[in-house]
Task: inverse folding
C-alpha cells in the first residue's frame, strides 16, 4: 500500500512539475514593462534566495565543501550556468514577443537533440527506431525552415541549449536543488550588477510599477524553484519511463497556449513540421517503452533462474555443517 501511495504521489508531483513548466508562458507577460533581460536577472537573483532558504531548511550544505574541492566540477557548473542563462533568457524573450509556439517546438525536439548529442559526444550507439526518430526530426526542421524562410532558430537554440545543459549536469552529478543553488550562485553577481546598472540609469522596472508588479518579479524565484522541487520528488518515486512520458506535458501545454490563448498563427507548413516532430516522438516513446519492458522481463527471468538454481542446489546438496560446496557458488553464478 505504501509503495502504491508513493507511486501515486510521485505521479502527482511529476504532473505538477511539468504542468507548471507548461503554464509558465502565462506568467512572463505579467512582468511587463520589465524587459526580458531584467526579468532574467531577477530570476537569477531571487532563485538563489529561495533555493538558499530551501537548503537552509533541509540543512543540506555538505555538497558545497565537496564542490569547492573539485575545480572540474566548478568549471562544469559555470558552463551549466552559462548555458541555462541563454535558455532562460531566450525563452522569456520568445514568450513576451509572441513566439510561444516556436518555443514549445524547442522542447518537443529536445529529446531528439539529446539523443544526437549522446551519439556525437558520448559515442552512444542508437537502436534503429532511435535513428528513425532522429531522421524524422531532422526532416521536420527542414520543413519548418522552408515554411519560415529561415531555420526555426528559437526552437533550435532552446533545444540545443537545454540538451547541452542536461549533458553537463549529467557529468556534474549533484542533486537538482543543489545544482540550481550552485548555478544561480554563479549567475548572482552579474545579474545583481545588471540590476544595479539599470537602477543607476533610472530604467529599472523593479519598484517602479506598484507593489504587485514588484512581488511578481520576486516570485520569479518561486516559479523557478517550486517545479524543480516537485520534479525531484517525482524522480525518486516513479520510474524513469513515466517521467519520460510526462516531459511532453510541458511543450504540449505551451503549444496549446500559443494557439488558443495567444492566438499565434499555424500555417499548413508549421502543422506539417509539428506533425513530423510528433511522429518522431511517438516512435521514440514506443521504442523506449518496448526496451524498458524487455529489460524488466530479462531481469525477472534472471532472478527467477537464480532462485530456481539456488533451490535445486540446496535440494541436491547434503546439509553438512561446515562443509563448503556448491551451495556457496550457485548464487554467484546466477547474478
Result:
Amino acid at each position: 500500500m505504501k509503495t502504491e501511495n508513493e507511486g501515486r504521489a510521485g505521479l502527482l508531483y511529476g504532473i505538477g512539475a511539468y504542468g507548471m513548466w507548461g503554464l509558465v508562458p502565462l506568467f512572463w507577460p505579467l512582468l511587463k514593462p520589465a524587459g526580458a533581460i531584467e526579468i532574467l536577472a531577477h530570476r537569477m537573483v531571487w532563485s538563489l534566495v529561495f533555493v538558499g532558504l530551501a537548503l537552509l531548511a533541509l540543512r543540506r550544505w555538505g555538497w558545497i565543501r565537496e564542490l569547492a574541492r573539485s575545480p572540474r566540477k566548478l568549471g562544469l557548473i559555470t558552463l551549466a550556468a552559462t548555458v541555462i542563462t541563454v535558455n532562460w533568457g531566450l525563452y522569456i524573450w520568445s514568450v513576451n514577443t509572441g513566439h510561444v509556439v516556436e518555443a514549445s517546438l524547442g522542447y518537443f525536439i529536445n529529446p531528439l537533440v539529446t539523443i544526437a548529442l549522446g551519439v556525437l559526444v558520448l559515442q552512444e550507439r542508437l537502436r534503429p527506431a532511435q535513428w528513425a526518430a532522429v531522421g524524422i526530426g531532422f526532416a521536420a526542421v527542414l520543413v519548418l525552415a522552408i515554411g519560415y524562410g529561415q531555420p526555426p532558430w528559437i526552437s533550435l537554440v532552446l533545444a540545443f541549449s537545454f540538451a547541452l545543459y542536461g549533458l553537463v549536469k549529467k557529468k556534474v552529478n549533484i542533486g537538482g536543488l543543489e545544482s540550481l543553488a550552485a548555478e544561480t550562485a554563479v549567475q548572482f553577481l552579474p545579474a545583481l550588477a545588471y540590476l544595479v546598472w539599470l537602477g543607476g540609469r533610472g530604467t529599472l522596472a523593479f519598484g517602479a510599477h506598484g507593489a504587485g508588479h514588484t512581488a511578481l518579479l520576486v516570485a520569479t524565484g518561486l516559479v523557478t524553484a517550486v517545479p524543480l522541487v516537485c520534479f525531484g520528488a517525482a524522480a525518486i518515486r516513479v520510474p524513469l519511463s513515466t517521467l519520460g512520458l510526462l516531459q511532453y506535458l510541458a511543450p504540449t501545454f505551451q503549444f496549446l497556449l500559443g494557439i488558443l490563448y495567444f492566438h499565434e498563427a499555424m500555417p499548413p507548413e508549421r502543422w506539417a513540421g509539428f506533425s513530423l516532430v510528433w511522429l518522431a516522438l511517438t516512435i521514440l516513446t514506443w521504442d523506449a517503452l518496448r526496451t524498458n519492458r524487455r529489460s524488466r522481463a530479462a531481469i525477472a527471468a534472471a532472478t527467477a533462474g537464480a532462485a530456481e538454481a539456488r533451490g535445486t542446489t540446496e535440494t541436491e546438496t547434503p546439509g553438512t555443517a561446515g562443509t563448503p560446496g556448491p551451495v556457496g557458488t550457485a548464487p554467484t553464478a546466477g547474478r
Q: What stands out?
A: The chain is about 80% helix and 0% strand. The CA atoms of residues 63 and 69 lie 10 Å apart. The first helix runs from residue 2 to 23.
